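seq:
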Amino acid sequence: MKKKMTKHHLISENLSSRVAEAYRVLRTNIQFASLDKPVKSILLTSSAPSEGKSTTAANLAIAFAQTGSRVLLIDADLRRPAQHKIFGLSNQLGLSSLLVQSVATEVVLRAVSVPTLRVITSGPIPPNPAEMLGSTRMRDTLRNLSISFDYIVIDTAPTLAVTDSAILGSMVDGVILVVSTGEVSADKIQRAKAQLDGVKANLLGVVLNGLEHDPQEDYYYYYYGPRQGAAAKA
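struct:
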């Protein structure tokens, strides 16, 4: 029987859980993914909707913030945003406001219960998400935000549905593909990877969401770095 995380379950609610430890392992793997160029900006996407990418992005951001690092979580899924729901925030202003309304950055940075974590929600859903995310203003915004934060975690739309993740994949240091075990075909996963490879995105690895839980083992999530060929389990 498969045991999955409860929707929007945050590891800050139970630091001693298996899931919390899994995210700490994932955080460590990312930190060691590239010794020559540290990975500071991380994009999370999936091949299809409902694979858990938004919850994974939120928990990964929390895991980084728990080390005392200054972390920013951006909801760049401008089609079906979720981070404002996960953290219980207003979505009246957010990333879209920052990009088209020239709203000050301080206005859209939202504090949450984790002290060193800030969240920028999606803001109002625009009619042209891909064009907005691919704009020079978006690239400049990420560059400017990187000055104030140690890590930036970005939640974006599924790869096969739209081009958003491919567009942003070229702007970040690394990409993680979230896959729901047993619910997405290998063909879709391969096509998602091919699309990211097509823009020369740095695919750090894959998070398998919803692995079977053996009572004798603490495996909940599985992460691998394809360039290292090594595996880490938690």
